[in-house]
Amino acid sequence: MKLEITASLLNKIHSHGEQSYPEEGAGFLLGRADATSRVVTEILTLTNSREDSARHNRYLLTAQDMLRGENEAERLGLDVIGVFHSHPDHPNRPSEFDREWAMPWFSYIITSVHAGKAIESRSWRLVDDRSKFDEEEIQVISIQ
Question: What would the DSSP string read from start to end of 14-65?
Fold first, then answer.
């Protein structure tokens, strides 16, 4: 499985992570998915609703955020296919906390942000039994 995204959208994800630093930034990936690939065509940045003391290493997307994401996806004729978030001064691998709260169908782009600068993004999918994440290839595409 691979996740296709334009360089422009990946740059927007990186910018959101940098702007949120030293806290985690997050949002939704909107697009289309089938059995072999997923294509991100829009993102929806969101405010981290976690309490102030935990925003440096946790994010929270509320029920209202989920509704907003679903409504925006529907308006655009798309689906919510995943979540992106940043890891300030930490690797772009899912944490145990990420695993506990993840949904198996979603793609999770995690961007490592060091000293306020986005370094690299990787994408992950939670396996169906919720035991671990498998890495998902990110393919940067150009718009045709």
Answer: HHHHHHHTTS--EEEEEEEE-SSEEEEEEEEEE---S-GGGTTT-----HHH
